[in-house]
């Protein structure tokens, strides 16, 4: 993977994560992202619908975005890999490092309220997508 492709995600507050449903349509969700060199991580509650979509179709599209999910940069394709054990702990530590309040207080509170736990994913195989693919199907 080209480490330079992830540079815009290191300085943005959110990443637009685009996951595929069984019917072929796409669902856009803004998520927090932490980047370390050529690795990018994001998390989600275990009972969220995107977990099922990622299990069925791990290929995703990503783009830097605003808090509301409006893309602000180039669209990339990647594959989401569910982490566990030490890898998941390290990714969660990276998320807490970048988003101190959100991932140290708000996310644990959300998970407690929803009575679930968090899952952490790594983006692998990041590559340039077809031009305008996020806007073409939205």
Q: What does this molecule look like?
A:
This protein is α+β, with helices and mostly antiparallel strands and 138 residues long. Helix content is 33%, strand content 35%. A 7-stranded antiparallel beta sheet has the order 2-1-5-6-7-4-3, with helices on both faces. The chain has a single domain, classed as Electron Transport, Fmn-binding Protein, Chain A (Pnp Oxidase, Chain A, Roll). Helix 3 (85-98) crosses helix 4. Strand 1 (14-20) and strand 2 (26-31) form a beta hairpin.
> C-alpha Rg, in Å?
14 Å
How confident overall, as mean pLDDT?
A: 88
CATH level 1 name? Mainly Beta
Please give the count of helices. Answer: 5
What is the CATH architecture assignment?
A: Roll
State the CATH superfamily name.
Electron Transport, Fmn-binding Protein, Chain A
Helical coverage, percent range: 25-40%
What is the number of E strands?
7
> How far apart are the termini?
27 Å
Helix and strand content put the structural class at: alpha+beta
List low-confidence stretches.
none
List keywords for this structure.
138 residues; alpha+beta; Pnp Oxidase, Chain A; seven-stranded antiparallel β-sheet; 5 helices
SSE layout:
Elements: H1 7-10, E1 14-20, E2 26-31, E3 34-36, E4 39-45, H2 49-56, E5 59-65, E6 76-82, H3 85-98, H4 100-114, E7 118-128, H5 133-137
Antiparallel strand pairs: 1-2, 1-5, 3-4, 4-7, 5-6, 6-7
Helix pairs in contact: 3-4
């Amino acid at each position: 993977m080209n480490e330079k492709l992830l540079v815009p995600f290191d300085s943005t507050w959110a990443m637009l994560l685009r996951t595929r449903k069984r019917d072929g349509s796409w669902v856009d969700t803004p998520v927090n992202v932490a980047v370390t060199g050529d690795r990018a991580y994001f998390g989600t509650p275990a009972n969220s619908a995107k977990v099922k979509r990622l299990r069925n179709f791990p290929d995703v599209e990503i783009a830097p975005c605003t808090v509301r999910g409006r893309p602000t940069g180039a669209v990339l394709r990647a594959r989401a890999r569910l982490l566990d054990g030490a890898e998941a702990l390290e990714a969660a530590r990276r998320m807490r490092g970048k988003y101190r309040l959100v991932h140290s207080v708000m996310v644990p509170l959300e998970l407690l309220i929803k009575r679930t736990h968090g899952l952490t994913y790594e983006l692998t195989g990041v590559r340039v997508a077809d031009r305008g693919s996020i806007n073409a199907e939205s």
